[in-house]
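Please decode residue identities from the backbone states below.
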């Protein structure tokens, strides 16, 4: 009994000493903020926490050197990590295999500046641990609103064991545009980008995939995937266009063709029924449609699944003549 409580006391004391010796969260190079302490399986399982550019310096590493290295890359990086006192790496996301550990596991003084205690990672048992940092005010890749006639639908969940979209296709140096084009060429009506470079197509979503909004994976169900509390789900830039969102781990940036009843939107000036009809006629279309007060659409057939709707849906005045009706939101006033 006596021995046990001494041991307990001793370990409490040890933890306190360790905690006191670790630099508090907040130690960060200019332009960066300290993030969390994470296991890095780079040497143990060959699975790096961050897979971007990397450099090692066993004698002179500091947090400033690592920041300068990541900041000097052609592509902007949102995260950097220093592992086990010597390995600096950059990336825009964390790989899916990692584990967060307590701050006290980041306990290695940086070899190039011993005052930077806890800034350069450490070891937890035998596992290398990384001190990670997040770029302040970094631009998060944006969902592309539309590509041609395809519209961005948002961020949807996926999983390796039950794919939301069945067909993986080749999309070159992946961008939203290249993936949409690849899916369209194969006759699919959904295109999804994942993990920055994967292009998936399908006729419909499967396995309960749904818009995952802005949940950040901290609810526990997929906490091993997303740890950036401020990030959107689909926050990985595309391999071929880093400012475009190309999903994330287990996250698809999803696109589908808009369901347009008429195929072509044309410029009809200050839109009236007359200006739209004549714009469509001059391009040899047989049908003109007015929508949303100011949009003029032309075609030679009305594409399914469209049919007449109530006239009340077409209630917006034309921008060019407010005595005329120019359709409504998602409702076309059609002229043959
Ligand atoms: C980040 O953005 C805020 C608000 O625009 C600004 O006040 C702050 O100086 C910026 N910080 C850095 C490091 O760029
Ligand atoms: C998407 O998330 C929902 C709700 O968490 C889940 O039921 C579904 O299985 C997930 N689907 C895929 C494809 O991951
Ligand atoms: C892919 O696109 C990126 C961004 O435009 C570019 O930096 C890179 O060199 C391209 N890679 C290949 C293999 O073409
Ligand atoms: C469009 O037409 C309306 C109604 O005739 C007129 O008030 C408006 O100034 C016109 N706008 C332009 C840009 O010509």
């Amino acid at each position: 009994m006596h021995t046990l409580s001494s041991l307990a006391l001793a370990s409490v004391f040890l933890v306190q000493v360790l905690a006191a010796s670790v630099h508090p969260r907040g130690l960060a190079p200019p332009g960066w903020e300290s993030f969390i302490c994470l296991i890095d399986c780079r040497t143990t399982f060959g699975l790096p926490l961050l897979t971007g550019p990397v450099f090692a310096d066993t004698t002179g590493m500091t947090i400033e050197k690592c920041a300068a290295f990541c900041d000097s890359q052609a592509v902007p990086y949102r995260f950097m990590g220093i592992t086990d006192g010597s390995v600096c790496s950059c990336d825009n996301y964390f790989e899916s295999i990692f584990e967060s550990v307590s701050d006290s596991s980041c306990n290695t003084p940086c070899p190039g500046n011993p005052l930077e205690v806890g800034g350069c990672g450490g070891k937890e048992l035998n596992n290398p641990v990384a001190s990670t940092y997040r770029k302040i005010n970094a631009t998060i890749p944006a969902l592309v609103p539309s590509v041609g006639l395809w519209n961005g639908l948002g961020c949807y969940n996926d999983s390796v064991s039950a794919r939301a979209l069945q067909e993986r296709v080749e999309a070159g140096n992946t961008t939203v545009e290249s993936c949409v084009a690849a899916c369209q060429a194969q006759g699919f009506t959904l295109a999804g980008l994942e993990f920055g470079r994967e292009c998936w197509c399908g006729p419909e979503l499967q396995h309960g995939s749904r818009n995952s909004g802005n949940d950040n994976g901290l609810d526990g169900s997929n906490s091993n995937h997303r740890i950036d509390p401020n990030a959107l789900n689909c926050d990985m830039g595309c391999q071929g266009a880093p400012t475009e969102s190309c999903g994330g781990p287990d996250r698809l940036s999803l696109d589908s063709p808009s369901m347009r009843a008429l195929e072509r939107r044309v410029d009809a000036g200050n839109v009236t029924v007359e200006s739209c009809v004549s714009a469509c006629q001059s391009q040899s279309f047989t049908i003109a449609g007015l929508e949303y007060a100011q949009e003029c659409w032309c075609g030679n057939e009305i594409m399914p699944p469209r049919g007449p709707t109530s006239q009340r849906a077409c209630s917006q005045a034309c921008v060019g003549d407010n005595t005329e009706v120019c359709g409504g939101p998602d409702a076309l006033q059609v002229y043959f």
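Observation: The chain has a mean pLDDT of 79.
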